[in-house]
Amino acid sequence: MTILYISDIHKIEILKTISIETVFYCNRKCGWCPNKDRQLDRNNVMTEECFERILSEIKEVGFTGEIHPYFRNEPGCDPEIGRKIRRIREVLPDNVVSVNTNGDYGVDVFHEAGAHYVHKNAYDDPNFKQSAHYKVFSNRAGKVSEKPEIKRVQCSLPLLKIMICYNGDIPLCCNDWDCEVKLGNIMERKLIDIWNCDIYRKYRYHHARGADYGKHFALCYKCNQI
Ligand code: SF4
Q1: pLDDT exceeds 60 at position 94
Q2: Which residue is closest in CA terms to ligand 1's atom 8?
Q3: Is 141's C-beta closer than 6 angstroms to any atom of ligand 1?
Q4: What is the model's pTM?
């Protein structure tokens, strides 16, 4: 278990995961996912310029941890995902590439590209909900119908993960599906400056200390993140 001290919460070294959404598309409409009611466009593909800039920024800040080559999408829906994983391994050889996939496009593409971990989620298994490590599915900060059964006063996600959307936007966390709390855009601002921006610092500070979600953080107030 990692112990976080309040004096360390703004150091980028505490960051564990960076997600890169190379395409914003999924072939499935799972009941617990905000994508189920959306018409996603396969053409929502991250530009090469954006992808390369992200890799170079990650390298520049000296991040070592997990790279997830997906966010709100199925990574197999990107026909270029193999090449992109190889490129991540090439530019960031000290990082671990971990993939979650529904497996509809197979898993070989990820393995062959050099992903360290490939998790195929058993969405077709009727017992999936019970067998998954979640007791309650995330309601994606109120976007889907799961009720916030557990009200938390702390959440470590703004401290541990950065999510980058296909268009370069960086939302508060992996449950901020619509980028309601936009921290910045990687095409407009350096990663380290986004990490150090006032909004991000405010969320990290209050989440680390225990916040009054109702007053300060409307998005978190709706969220059942466990
Ligand atoms: S509590 Fe807030 S920061 Fe944590 S996952 Fe939910 S919306 Fe994101």
Answers
A1: yes
A2: 173
A3: yes
A4: 0.91
